[in-house]
Amino acid sequence: MGFWKSLFTGAETDTPPRDKDLSAKTLTEVSSQDRGAQIVFSTERDIDLYELEELCDAVGWARRPIRKVRKAIEHSFLVVTMWEVQGNRRRLIGFSRATSDHAFNATIWDVVVHPDYQGKGLGKTLMKQLIKKLRSEDISNVTLFADPHVVDFYRNLGFMPDPEGIKGMFWYPD
Amino acid sequence: MGFWKSLFTGAETDTPPRDKDLSAKTLTEVSSQDRGAQIVFSTERDIDLYELEELCDAVGWARRPIRKVRKAIEHSFLVVTMWEVQGNRRRLIGFSRATSDHAFNATIWDVVVHPDYQGKGLGKTLMKQLIKKLRSEDISNVTLFADPHVVDFYRNLGFMPDPEGIKGMFWYPD
């Protein structure tokens, strides 16, 4: 974990779950950081979408309509965000989400860590939170589509490219 | 289309949509067949799950708990089934479904055509129905994970493996 302490303490809030079928408590996990700041993970979906847009801008993603981003978050099975919290200030520094059929398969989308916070193991921790939550929901098939430069990042987390020759494919209109 | 006539007639039922956000009318499309039988496509989810299990058995898939299959169908964004209809008898001969965030991405799962009906272009027609519906819902990124022996089937439908080096990856627990 390098700069960040690896100690996590579960701190479940009493916010009711958004989706009864998810049967998931809103989860906030806290990682202590040196110098008084904390890294906090949350499955809350009440995100300032302009703050999220800023985060995505910072890594150079193409802008997407806020309206569609809101809909995508609403209809994702799981959203895990990462925050730096210092006193009563908090800053969104990471985001990830997964679609799912709530039974067998999940697909992870939109994993992002702010450039200022990259290279500290935080992306790995964010992904581990997401995977842990998916597994706790009895999802056995956790999948994603990785850009070439992050294939090794996901490989180190236990993801395998093209297992048994299975090919990720994208439809392109004629 | 070979044996099957390629003429489709849209015949929308007045069944209310299951998911308001999908804003999709339940769609039944009909393809005429020689000898009095018809091939019918439907997005209805009221499927006899034992009939679906029989279909999946016929192609040699491992059995899955009915309870989980029901949940997966309920939480899929879209289900398209294919039926042979003769008089008032109907037989489930194909199935497909997709998960989605209802905004950007969809992932297709569980595409199956009964062996007796393979090699007639029906799998292709089933997929085209599914893609058409996803596109009509403004989903721009249609994806799937293809077993090696069906990569060419999907390629012929316009799916590209590993576009720009993007890798499909599956998580395997340690």
From TrEMBL, chains A, B:
InterPro entries recorded: Acyl_CoA_acyltransferase, GNAT_dom, NSI-like
One MF annotation (Gene Ontology) recorded for this entry: N-acetyltransferase activity
Protein keywords: Acyltransferase, Transferase
Domain named N-acetyltransferase: residues: 39-174
One Gene Ontology cellular component annotation held by this UniProt entry: cytoplasm
Superkingdom classification of source: Bacteria
Coiled coil stretches, renumbered: none
Region span, Disordered: 1-21
Record's protein name: GNAT family N-acetyltransferase
Species name: Leptolyngbya iicbica LK
